[in-house]
Write a structure and sequence with these properties.
mainly alpha; Rna Polymerase Sigma Factor, Chain: A
Length: about 220
């Protein structure tokens, strides 16, 4: 793990006032700082088995390998960095406690399992804020084009637009597009009707296209 990430993790602990004993990431980051040899990169299966046994080398490598990816997932759902960091922190702790339940099903299954943990954590955080049934009214023009040249939009900008969506829109959009859930499944997950799910997805898509159209015009693309 780069030293700058060590500092970032420690800074997070200090700023969020987590007790040191509660932040496993700080412990993992510094446990092996005096090692002179380079640790061999473990496969997904080896990582899962090592974490199941409570091996801190495997835990450290798991965090290094997946933290950035999973932070992006948390950001997509939460919409703000502080909440995303909390979800990421709690999600890794839950994963380390739950490896006894994980079944390795081939390459990619560990990543998928970790992603589900983060998504579920993000949804739980949204439920606690009681925002999933909110349907903020956003006045949108009827002439927004559904098709824009998305290749002209930097990925970071597009992800920012998604994060800026109202909570209900953003949650439904993420579940439908990234988790590939049907509106029936989303309705069951969020405790809403299928109509509400499809309506929020439609308005999320329209609002995104509005942001994209404005961006293209502003950047003269």
């Amino acid at each position: 793990m780069p030293e700058i990430l060590h500092v970032q993790v420690l800074k997070l602990v200090i700023e969020k006032k987590f007790p040191m004993r509660c932040s496993i990431f700080v412990l993992l980051s510094f446990t092996y700082k005096n090692k002179k040899h380079v640790l061999q990169k473990l496969s997904e299966k080896e990582l899962a088995e090592g974490c199941r046994k409570g091996d801190n080398v495997a835990r450290k490598q798991l965090y290094e390998q997946y933290a950035d990816l999973l932070m992006a997932v948390c950001m997509r759902y939460s919409g703000d960095r502080d909440t995303a960091q909390d979800i990421l922190h709690d999600g890794f702790l839950k994963a380390f406690r739950s490896f006894g339940q994980f079944q390795y099903m081939g390459e990619g299954s560990l990543r998928a399992w970790l992603t589900r943990i983060m998504v579920n954590g993000a949804l739980e955080a949204l439920r606690k804020r009681n925002v999933l049934n909110e349907q903020p009214i956003e006045e949108l023009p009827d002439d927004i084009e559904d098709e824009e040249d998305l290749e002209l939009i930097p990925q970071a900008v597009l992800m920012q637009f998604i994060q800026e969506l109202p909570d209900g829109y953003r949650t439904v959009f993420n579940l439908y597009v990234f988790e590939e859930k049907s509106h029936k499944e989303i309705a069951e997950i969020l405790g809403i009707t299928e109509h509400t799910s499809s309506s929020q997805f439609f308005r999320a898509k329209k609002l995104l296209m509005k942001k994209i159209s404005e961006y293209l015009k502003r950047e003269d693309l």
